[in-house]
Amino acid sequence: GQQVMQIPQYQHVQEGEDFTTYCNSSTTLSNIQWYKQRPGGHPVFLIQLVKSGEVKKQKRLTFQFGEAKKNSSLHITATQTTDVGTYFCAGDSNYQLIWGAGTKLIIKP
Amino acid sequence: NAGVTQTPKFRVLKTGQSMTLLCAQDMNHEYMYWYRQDPGMGLRLIHYSVGEGTTAKGEVPDGYNVSRLKKQNFLLGLESAAPSQTSVYFCASSYALSPHYEQYFGPGTRLTVT
Lengths: 109, 114
Prior knowledge:
heterodimer, A: mainly beta, B: mainly beta, 4-stranded antiparallel beta sheet, 11 strands
């Protein structure tokens, strides 16, 4: 079946450094969604990308959808402690979202 | 608005026991979902519902049953719990058919089966 692979599993950064997570699908996606889950919390929707090559920004977060609509990335500039959590991508498959395993952002003390 | 609520928040079961998890949403959403989340893994869809009285299987439906008797409620049942069902369970809802609409999640139920 369709798979959405997300890497890395963890990323340790110093506060102020950048963070990037990548998603790759085995098949072409009609769209992709990104969610954030704070420690002990539930996933919260961040954004949806639909168009090939689409780039969207939310303050320090930049989301990209690949030209072939098979990959996506989330880049956070100058991380802050409020960015801590796990970031998930989720792509469609027969009207069901297939979730990546998530990338956990950890801020080094 | 409360959004999506789940009860209970925590539960410990012994192998073979049964239980029902309740999900309620007050956003008048047509679609509701049950997921499980295990460490190091993403969310896996157990069952979903596209409207009152209708349910469908997701990626990992075995060992679970669901019912959607009222639009605002979606129940997840475990008839005979197994240790492999130890997980965090999330309910979600969406206005219309995901993946084209965002999903709103409840706070989760942490279930341990001993």
